[in-house]
Automatic annotation (TrEMBL):
This is Transcriptional regulator. Coiled coil: none annotated. Residues 45-116 form the (S)-ureidoglycine aminohydrolase cupin domain. The lineage of its organism: Bacteria, Pseudomonadati, Pseudomonadota, Gammaproteobacteria, Cellvibrionales. CDD domains: cupin_TM1112-like.
Amino acid sequence: MEVGMTAKLMRVAEGKVERESGVVAPEKVLAGNPQQWTEHFFTNKKENFFCGIWSSDAGKWSLTYSEDEFCYIIDGEAIITDADGDSERVTTGDAFCIPAGFEGTWETIGSVKKFYAIYEE
């Protein structure tokens, strides 16, 4: 922060930023034709911490995480399966973390919306 400048609270609210959309990368898709949307709210000065709202419609795709991610499911449900085949169903109101190094799949059931906060070394 520059000398003489004070840090200000930054509120996170839907509809305050531009919404981006696109398909999940075709080489990762295992089922369906999932679309995803992101409202990105904040990136820190080091560009290694991010937060926003992400959503998708039905589909299943492979995941490989290089970052740590905190997630809070705002609406809907998904099934997250790790490389060993262990699955967790996450639904509205669930909070969880996905650590760097995680490999597996994400399956959106119907549609899902989550708040995310990502940290990457």
